[in-house]
Amino acid sequence: MMLKPAHPSDVDVPEKAGARLELENLRVGFKGQVILSNITLTVKPGELLALAGPNGGGKTTLLKTIGGLLKPLAGRVLLDGKDIQGMGKQEKAGNISVLFQGATPDWPFTVQEVVSQGRSPYRSIFAAETALDKDATDRALITAGLSGFENRRITELSGGEFQRVLIARAMAQEARLLLLDEPANNLDPKYQYMVMNLVRSLTKRGLGALVSLHDLSLASLYADRIALIHQGSIVALGKPDTVLQEAMLAQVFGIPLVISPHAQDPRIPAVAFPLPE
Description:
The protein is of the alpha/beta class. The strands form 3 sheets. It has a 6-stranded mixed sheet, sandwiched between helices. Strands 2-1-4-5 form a 4-stranded antiparallel sheet, with helices on one face. It has a two-stranded antiparallel sheet with strand order 11-12. The protein has a single domain (about 10-270), classed as Rossmann fold (3-Layer(aba) Sandwich). The protein has helices spanning about 60-65, 90-95, 110-115, 130-145, 160-170, 190-205, 215-220, 240-245, 245-255, and strands at about 20-30, 35-45, 50, 75-80, 80-85, 95-100, 175-180, 210, 225-230, 235-240, 260, 270. Helix 5 packs parallel to helix 6. It starts with 20 loop residues before the first strand and ends in a 5-residue tail after the last strand. Residues about 1-15 have low confidence and may be disordered.
C-alpha cells in the first residue's frame, strides 16, 4: 500500500500556540570549549528550520543549549521575547520539548506509559493522571498514528515505531516549540517518510520546530529553511534551494555532492553522491 503524506487536517490542533524562538549572538560549548559562535537566527511559529552540517559540528550542543540543558557561554535564547535562563524547569517543559538521538527502549514500558510521561511537567511524581492528562496522551497517540499500539511493549517495536512513540511523548507534553535531534536517523525510507511527515504536519498546525538532519534531501523536502553549520558558525541560512548549492556543500562536507531537480517537483533540490571512482 502506498503511503500518503500526513495532511494538516488529519492532525489535532495543539492546545497552545507555537512560540517564536530567537537566538541572539549565541555562543555555545561546554567545559570551557567553544563549539559555536555568533549564532543568530529565528524560528517562527509554524516553521520547520533544519540544522545541517558535518558530524561533530555542534548541532546537538546548540539544541541542548536552546533546550536549557546547557547554559550559553554568551548571548541569549529568547522564547516570545523571554530569556529561557529566567524560566524555571516547569515553565521550560511547558514551552520546549526536546528529543535527542540515541534513546533506546531498554525497559519494557507500554507505549501508553511512555507517551503519558510527557505529562510529567504538569503533575507531581505520585499524582494520579487527570482527565486533561489522559486527553493529551490520547490525542498524541492518535496524531502519531499509534492507535492500537497502546499496550505494546516498546522493547517489541521497530526503530521507526519507537521514534514515533518518542515524538508522541513530546506532543503529549503540549510544548510550543519542538527541538528534534536527528529524528529520522537510522530509519529505513518508510519510517523516515512517516516520521518527517508527522513533524511537518505538526508545524503546519502552528508549532515551531528546530530539527537537526544529516540527510540533506530530507532537509530539502521538509524544511522551510536550512541553517548550514561549518567550522563553528552558520555559513548559510535560507530556503533549501538557496542553501543547497554544490560549491557550498563541497566546501562544508569536503565531497562534490550533486544537486539536481527533484523528479516530482523541479523547484525542490535533490542531493546525491557523486558516482563511485
